[in-house]
Structures are given as structure tokens and as C-alpha cells.
Amino acid sequence: MARLLALLGGNATASALLLARNLLIAHLLPIEDYGIAATFAVAMALVEMASQFGMQAQIVQSPEGGGRDYLAAVHGFQIARGGMSALALFLCAGPISAFLGMPDLAWAYRVLALAPLIRAFHNFDIHRQTRAMRFGPVLLTATSAAAISFIAIFPLAYLAQDWRIMLGALLIQEICACLTSHIMAERPYRVRADLLVWRRSVRFGWPILLQGVVLFAVFQGDKILVARSLGFEALGVFAMGVTISLAPTLVVTKSLQSWFLPQLSRAMGTSAFRPAAVACAQATLLSAIVLCAGVMVAGPVLIDWALGPAFQALGLLLPWMAVQQALRVCRAGMNTAALACGVSWLGAATDLIRALSLPAVWVILSRDGTLLSVVFVAILAEVAGTALALFVGSRRVLLPVRALGPALVVTGVALSGLPVLTLAFGQVWTAGAALLSCGGLLTFSPQLRRILPIRFLASRHSFACQRPAPVTLP
């Protein structure tokens, strides 16, 4: 349990630093300039989308993931992938800038092509260490890069008073992360070309690649449509809302997957798998309620104190955006259990439903729709995706959905009521209702209670009532 809390804390620290960086940039820049800066994230996501093979998950999931030759082959694959990504962004810089209505800024996207090239030379030994539940190297790599990127804003703001601040911060973050990954590695950096490993990586990763394409549509499609239809000022507001609500979502999903995936993979084929999978799903449901309430309580404070009057329109949007992201967290547990079983396509399938909602968003915006209507369409699509995850989880992963029934009902009621309470009565009512919801969920979640601090301190047992066997590293 202490490791899980440390994992959550480390990911939360890195995410908080990146959020603080973006808030500071938004505070320093006019809202239209911040909208332009947000397009750099769109460009980076476009490149990553086209080359995402889930190498970190493969290292954890594969029985060969701890081998030296396997790790060297992964490095070779990563360099090839990063080089192609950088070349693609460099060549597409002109069309991207023209599509977004900024043809004069093509040079900035060409400079940004350095980011995937730098990322290609990370030492993935930090991910190998997570096989033994040692998350310190991964956390330190992410946290140190985020911290230096935040600190760099001050000299960058002195040198440039426009969107170039974000461009410099992104490149500095990639450089620091690459250097730290080598410092924290236990094994020397080796590269080899192994076509057998590469073919297996492609076979494992093609559903994740498909999910990357879908995720680009999910996370960036709305932004592109907003920029094209409503302009960069509206994009600035919308992108900041996504940043505030998405940051804790990524912390929760990344931390829970990093914690549960190694243990679920080891429990595959044993009687411990089902209770572990149920506990994983219950943990994500609990996290969804906490995340949703946290954004609703802290969001107005960030808007008033960090962003100023230019972003006041976020006050109405943010509670509903929090619900949208909380629904993504709800199905993260089912996706993690499926990934442990080798069903890597479930995440792509559920996200595809969200991507298919983009034509509806385009129609709404073309008919003078508002940002709030865009968020409501996204919520409906996320509900449908969560329903699909439950159905597939019960059939392919043999996840006992009936055991999750009461917790699902509590979560659904909470996510439906919290935004109404926030907008009608304020944050105090929201916090109280969230506490009651969490208590109700825990009442119906015996598998989850086994890994909470009270039970943990009493028995020092995991959710399977047994300490996982140590992993012997070569």
C-alpha cells in the first residue's frame, strides 16, 4: 500500500508541475496566444498517435521483458519509431500550420520535430525496474523533467513574450527526461536490431497503435474542430479546461495501471486473478468519484486565482468536463485487467465510440453550437464506451460484473449529481456528497477494502491475501 501511495504521489507531483507550468503560461500570455501554444500539443499528439506501440507495457507484460537482449531490441525499435515520427512531423509542418490557419508558423512545428527524436533515446531500463514494483526511476524521470520545464518558464518569458515560451518548455522537458532516464538506469544503454522482437512488438502493439489513432481523435479532435469553428480564443478556454480536468485523470489511470498490471499479469491463470481484477475495477470507480469532486472543488479556485477574468467561461464548463474525464477513469480498471490477459484491443474499441462522436460535434459547431454542447456529446460517448468495456470485460476477461453492480450504481449516481450540486450550491455540498459516495462505494467493495490502509496495516496482505512473489531479474 505504501508503494501505491508513493506511486500516486509521484505521478501527482509530475502532473501538478506540468499543470502549474500551463497555468503560468496561460497567465503570462493573451488567451489567443495560449490557444496557439495549445496547438503544439495537438502536433505532438499527432506524431505519437502514428507510432504508439505500448513498449512500456510490453516490457512489463512480456515474460522476456527483463532480459538484456530484449531491452536492447526495444531500444532499437524505439529509435526507429522516434526517427520516423520526427521526420513525419518535419514534413507535415507546412500542412499542419496551414490547416490551423497559421501558415507563417510552419518553422515552429519543424523545430518541435526534435521532441520525438529526443524521446526515442530514452533508456527503457527504468520501465524494466517496474517489473519488480520499483517505480522510483520512472517517477523521478517524469518529476524532474516537469520541474525543470516549469522553472524554465521564467527565463523563457524574459526572452519571448508569446507562444514561443511553450515551444521552449516542451523541448526542455524532453531533454531532461531523456538525460534522467539514463542516470536512473541500472543497466548500460544498448541497442540492437532484432527483427523477431520487433515483429512481436508490432503484433502486440498494433491494437495500441489503433488506440493511439483513436485517442488522437478523442483528445485532440474536439480542439481542432473548436479552433476551426470558434477561433483560437475559444480554443484557449477549451484547452485549459481539458488541461485542468485531464491532468488528474492521467495521474490516476497511469498510477493504477502501473500498480495493478504487474500483479494481474502474475496472477493470470490462478484463483487470485478474479478478486484482483475486481479490486482493480473498484479502485478505478472510487478514483473516478474522488477525481470528479476534486476538479469541481479546486477548479473555481484555479480559475479565480491563477487564470483571471479571461477564463471565467470555464466556470460552467469545468464540472461537466470533470464528469467526462471521470467516466474514462471508470473503465481504466477493466482495460488494465484486459491488458493483463493480452486483450490489448479493448481500450481502442471503447475509445472508438468516443471518436465516432466527432461528426456530431462538427455538426453542432457548424450550427453555432457552444463549448458546453461539445462537452455533453463527449459525456454521452464516454457512457457508451464504459458500457462496452463492462460487456467485453464480462465475456473476454471473465470479470464478474455482478460483483461490481452496487459500486457501479453508486458511481453513476455520484457522477450525475456532483456537477448539479456544484453549480447550484457550491463546493462545500460537492465535497460532502463525494465523501458519502465514497463511503457507500467502499461498503459494497470488499475486494477493494483488502488493499486499503486499515486492512493493510492489520495484515500486510495484498488483495489476493498473499504477498506477490518477488521477480528475479537477470
From TrEMBL:
The keyword Ion transport does not apply. GO terms for cellular component: plasma membrane. The chain crosses the membrane at residues 84-101, 138-159, 165-184, 204-220, 232-252, 273-299, 305-323, 335-365, 371-391, 403-422, 428-445. InterPro entries: Poly_Biosynth_Transport. It holds the Pfam family Polysacc_synt_3. Its main location: membrane. It is a multi-pass membrane protein. It is found in: Cell membrane. Keywords: Cell membrane, Membrane, Transmembrane, Transmembrane helix. Belongs to the polysaccharide synthase family. This is Teichuronic acid biosynthesis protein TuaB.
